[in-house]
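Here is one chain, start to finish.
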Amino acid sequence: MDIKIPLTKLWVHEPEAMGEAALTLGRVLRSGKFVLGGEGEAFEREFCRFLGAPSGVGVGSGTDAITLALLAGGIAEGDEVLVPDFAPGATASGVLATGATPVLVDVKLDFSLDLSGLQAALTSRTRAIVVVHLFGSMDDMTTLLAFARENGLWVVEDCAHAHGAMSWSEPEQQWRMAGTLGDAGAFSFYPTKNLGGIGDGGFCCCASPAIAEVLRELRQYGWRERDNSTRVGRNSRLDEIQAAILRDALPKLPFWNTRRQSLAALYLEFLEPAAHRAGVTLPKPQTGRRHVFHQFVIRSRERDALASQLASRGVGCGIHYPRPLSQQTAYRRFGANRSFPVSEQLAGEVLSLPMHPTLSVEAALEVVSILEAIWRNK
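Its structure:
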């Protein structure tokens, strides 16, 4: 059956946005500058202003952003980096590209890193931790930063799902954006993200201008000046087309996130009674955090059957993620001889419902109605 309510929809597919994007592409083409030009410089300033971050650097992808953020902290071959087991494969891949070893750690049922697991995984080679702000909600940065500082660890926030997510900082008495609390924040601008381009792109933000200069060198061959590599770098630059498109999108991001939050509130209000009776777990926004709902993820022990029933009724859904890293061929060795019961449970239960800013209230209510009917007829 055709999907009538898609899981996601790209902002550039809207007619008005397509017209705006065409004008932007024309501007870039006429400029004749396609790599490391004015569009990229302007976007770096504008995104840093949005985040409240002192410094930031555009890079080629979200995976590269993780790699470069670790390299900027001196992470290298022989080092170990703590990584949640229930996370995108890109997180572990980003660690491996530095030459370091990802050490998998189990999570809790709210997808946050398990502190006892982190403590158990520490060795004399542990140098960093990658905190993944999954599905649009920040992890408990207060606890994780205290753990990291106690153990001298470099902290990278993987914010691929968390553009605009926030956490209340009690010491500062203010809200802080995802990416601005650790030593570096890594963002992806893959088209389906809350802030998405029309191809690959990424960003590293940091509190230190000195680290930002290191990142600028790392993203382009290690050059401080042309054809003179002062360190071993890469080719990972945010191109001018992506930067220009992202400049169009960035002013819309607060509205898009508010829209996602409103749709999530609708789901939570209308699904709660039926979900409770069916034994289905709905996402629970945490006090002191502002969730931006990159995905609206429910949990069901009958997930596969539920996904099939939704698809048969024209509702798009997704599974993020069907396997923890410890059960994937490429990463299995990084969890050898250890167990990950919560990650495995989550992988068997998670299901993402339709969520995007152009999802209508009527469509969201139809999803609710279909789910209620499925659960009623169990």
